[in-house]
Amino acid sequence: MESLENQIALSTCCCSHNFKDGYAMLEWIEKIGFKKVELSHGIPINLAPGILKAVQDGVISVVSVHNFCPLPIGINSPMPNLFKPTSRNKAEVILWKRYTEETIKFAKSVLAEKVVMHSGSAWFFFGSPVPRLYKWINDSSIQFQELARDSDYIAIRDKVIGKIKRSSTKRYDSLESNFKYISDFAKTHSIILGIENREGLSELPLDQDHVEFVKKFSHKDPIRYWHDTGHAEIKSLYGLLDHEDRLSKLKDYTTGFHIHDVSDSGEDHQEVGTGIIDFEMLSRYMDPSKHSLILELSPTLSLDAILRSRDYVRKLI
Fold first, then answer.
1. Buried b or exposed e, range 286-300, using 16+ CB within 10 angstroms
2. Nearest Cα residue to 69 out of 88, 51, 94, 87
3. Among 299, 317, 295, which residue's Cα sits nearest to residue 308?
4. Residue 248 — φ and ψ, nearest 5°?
């Protein structure tokens, strides 16, 4: 039986920028005490050969890969939304399919079983209303944790979300069609696709639609739900979802977790146990025998903070 400590993986998002060789990166992650890793969406193509060699040599086990990985040629920083499955531009959709297929094939080559997916966004002809909401929040004196109880905030939030909802309606058909296409491709490679909940207000599926969208797909399809703890908490602070309710409704569809904390000012990817997330509640929905548990931490955190986060999660589960 594998130890709980060894079942917790580390996302390369906290360190990939420090390395020019993929082998050295995975060796470093193994040396600090992790047996499993997620290859995040910040992996440039030059790291791929070393990563493949490290996996072949048994340095570490790759649990999951985050689309797009490796990055498209010429892109050297994380851009998971570079191409969107919700686009009406046929050329962009072709590129989304191409690089998502490349990610799935790369996942297969590093012996991973899962790929984490973003799902595009709404589109606005006259510009997104989201910056207006953010400006209102920044200009107000309201604490982040008080937003969901403030009537003035709720009024402007609901107007903005209404505009996003209207702009997203026609995007769902494209999203569903393109996910069906890539689902069939993933199935032929025995890869599970995890639809991640997002922190962006206009990213799809919208919070009010997320549960229904995931459940549209049959269990015969390799499409599941990927729960990001920080993103869900931020949306909870905005009053757009109930964190535990989301976990409960999708518990039979969940395949993995991105685990990180949120500060009282709303900053995510923080050391686990130092912020406002109720991890005792979360632990009731985490099952290491079913779920991939990935620490997704900020590159600004220290090594000690990374290890404390791992130990905190280990004690929880």
1. bebeebbbbbbbbee
2. 51
3. 295
4. -65, -45
Q: What span, in angstroms and rounded, lies between the C-alpha atoms of 187 and 222?
A: 6
Place of tokens 């549209």: 216
Distance of CA 92 to the CA centre of its chain: 21
| Paired tokens of 21 | 């060789």
The rounded distance, in Å, linking the Cα atoms of 145 and 236 is 9
Q: Which residue has the tokens 């955190």?
A: 301
**b/e map of 36-47 (b: 16 or more CB within 10 Å)?**
bbbbbbbbbeeb
pTM: 0.96
Q: Please give the average pLDDT of every successive group of 10 residues along the chain, which has 317 residues.
A: 76 96 98 97 96 98 98 89 95 98 98 98 89 92 91 96 93 95 97 97 96 92 97 97 97 98 94 97 95 98 98 93
The two structure tokens encoding residue 286: 């985490």
Residues 5/29, Cβ–Cβ less than 8 Å: no
200 burial class (0-12, 13-18, 19+ CB within 10 angstroms)? middle
How many C-beta atoms lie closer than 10 Å to residue 151's C-beta? 6
All domains of the chain in start order, with CATH: 5-123+171-316 (3.20.20.150)
| Sign of the dihedral through C-alpha 187, 189, 195, 200 | negative
- 129, 131, 132, 135 alpha-carbon torsion, rounded to 10°: 170
Question: 116 Cβ partners below 8 Å, 6+ apart?
Answer: 38, 64, 65, 66, 67, 194, 196, 226, 256, 258
